[in-house]
Amino acid sequence: MKYVLVTGGVVSGLGKGVTASSVGVLLNACGLRVTSIKIDPYLNTDAGTMSPFEHGEVFVLDDGGEVDLDLGNYERFLDIKLTRDNNITTGKIYQSVIDKERRGDYLGKTVQVVPHITDAIQDWIERVAAIPVDGKEGPADVCVIELGGTIGDIESMPFIEALGQFSYRVGSGNFCLIHVSLVPVLNVVGEQKTKPTQHSVKGLRSLGLMPNILACRSTAELEENVKRKLCQFCHVPEENILTLYDVSNIWHVPLLLKDQKAHEAISKVLNLGITSEPHLSEWTSRAELCDMLQESVRIAMVGKYTGLSDSYLSVLKALLHGSVACGRKLCVDWVPSSDLEDATATENPDAYRKAWSLLKGADGVLVPGGFGDRGVQGKILAAKYARENKVPYFGICLGMQIAVIEFSRSIIGWKDANSTEFEPNTKNPCVIFMPEGSKTQMGGTMRLGSRRTYFHVADCKSAKLYGNKSFIDERHRHRYEVNPDMVEKLEEAGLSFTGKDESGRRMEIVELLGHPFFIGVQFHPEFKSRPGKPSPLFLGFIAAACGQLDAVLRKGVGKAANGIGNGTNKSSSSSRHYGNGNKATRPLVDIIYSNGNGVHY
Question: Which residues contact 230 (CB under 8 A, 6 or more apart)?
Answer without folding.
Answer: 194, 197, 198, 214, 216, 222, 236, 241
